[in-house]
## 1
Amino acid sequence: MRVPPSLRISLTVVVAIGVLMLAGLQVGARLLRSQVAEALGPTATVGALSIGWSGVVLDDVRIRASVRSWPVDDELRAGRILVVPDLRGLLSADIRIARIRVDRGYLSAYRSRDGRLHVLPSLLEQPDRASKARPLPAVTVGEVALQDAEVELFDASVRRPAVRQRLERIALSLRDLRLPDLKGPSKLQIDGVHKGVRRDGTFSVAGDIEFASLDSTIRLRLRGVDVVSFQPYLIQAAETGVRRGTLDLDITATVRKRRLHAPGTLVLTDLELAGAAGAGTFAGLPQRALVGFMKDRNDRITVRFTLQGDLDDPGFSLNENFAARVASALGETLGVSVETVVRGVGNAAGEAAKGVGGIVKKIFGR
């Protein structure tokens, strides 16, 4: 069959355009890879980068720890990152990204003794890089999605060595993110598993937040969390420990003009305390009273509390505020007065109770 000359020419043009586009994608990929490596910093590596019709794909991304004191080897890992451009952005001066999807991601975070949370210090806490970097253009991201991610939080604000909390099977959706100013509300949804010593629990976080001002309404929900792994947030170092038990927690936190208001409900089930029966304290309260109350309530106790404070107040500590409010609410539930919590019971028990009791006295002014 003879192909007409006009059709031959058309086919040749199509093939040539296809070859040129593929060559352009390869050149673009090489250029983009060098720019991505520079943007991620000297401790970052990218296994492979490709540009296709669906977007830009980065495989085997790793950012090694840039700080000697960082508790683990890596700040971040990702099996694959897909960046899907928003074609509508081609018609405007704004850079728009429809979606960023991260598969098999890992992130480590460190909370120092002063309560500051450190995440990706190689990117966010390097003044030399920030001063030399060119101003970032405005970017709007429709959605950031994480699938099957892991997070490790090392919290030195409650104990030393730092308490390790591990979250797994995380699914995250963050919508309407504006970079780099982080202004405007973003919708957040996170679900995952909290790894415990004896059992695993589940958690979810949902709500709206403006990262620039921290104005937000966030709902936190924990179900079946292992109290053994959560006890550093409930008790003082000298107090009675926990052998087993589960914790359910519901908090609705609202931040407006840097002020926090967060009513919540805490449920403890099947709590078994360590140490001699009836001796010592738990959350600043006599262990004997707590054990007796739970026996009368089918090994279940419900506590309602409210966290509140000024986020800019250097004297405000969320850890202490949480422990104090829970201790006070437990005391009210058990019929133990705040003064009893402050005084403590006995010698060693009294010393253990002073830590939380003093905070309760400071907060409530009595």
## 2
Amino acid sequence: MKTKNVNFKKYSSFKIGSEVSVCLLEDDFSDIDKYYLIGSCNNTLIGPNPPALMMLDKMYDYIKIENNTLKVGGATPSGKVASFCKRNNIANLEFLSHLPGKLGGLVYMNAGLKEFEIFNVLVDITTTEGTVKRENIEYGYRYTNLNKPILEASFSLEKGYDVNKVEMFKKMRSNQPSTPSAGSCFKNPKGDYAGRLIEAVGLKGLMKGHMCFSEEHANFLVNNGGGEFEDAMWLINEAKHRVQEEFDILLECEIIILETQH
């Protein structure tokens, strides 16, 4: 199996982690259960001792139109899909212009902005075990029950790329910090906002090493340069502890933490 050395301090959006040898998934699916599959690590915090990692090979980076269906490889970056849709006047995936990541990861977490999400236009996916139709997948807010690598996703094709939607999505993201982060740290609890709760317990802007919950948006854990995994974990655990104590709400991480427990 081919491997690739990945420096997570440069590769991940958090800019935290060391250089790790990552296996590349091509067309041999025999040993995949030994590995944790990663994408572009826009919502991932890599620890000093991550599990064995794997990513899709670049053979899964493609976009094509077949039988009036948009087919996209799992390793295709969201920006590439957004540009293709704009160029070909394809509607309903405009929000991808403001969601970083690779397609497999975006489908896996049913990524979106407000009510606009991947599963609204998804037809089916191809995994290492074959094709699965959308109606046979359990999904919800930033959630699916998928547990196999997503090699391809098919979307219904509708004409009418909407530049007004792109502007709307840009405004939605305007309050988000540009400092390195992994996006929203916690899922919003039902009927509330994680950012409000973090601010209410006094953690907004509190520095631990070079990490803090952003002054711009308290649910963004940001790296102000040279941030360490341990400091990020301290803040995550402190937020969970304080919010549970104050509001009896257990915050659930939206970011993925990859660290082998000893």
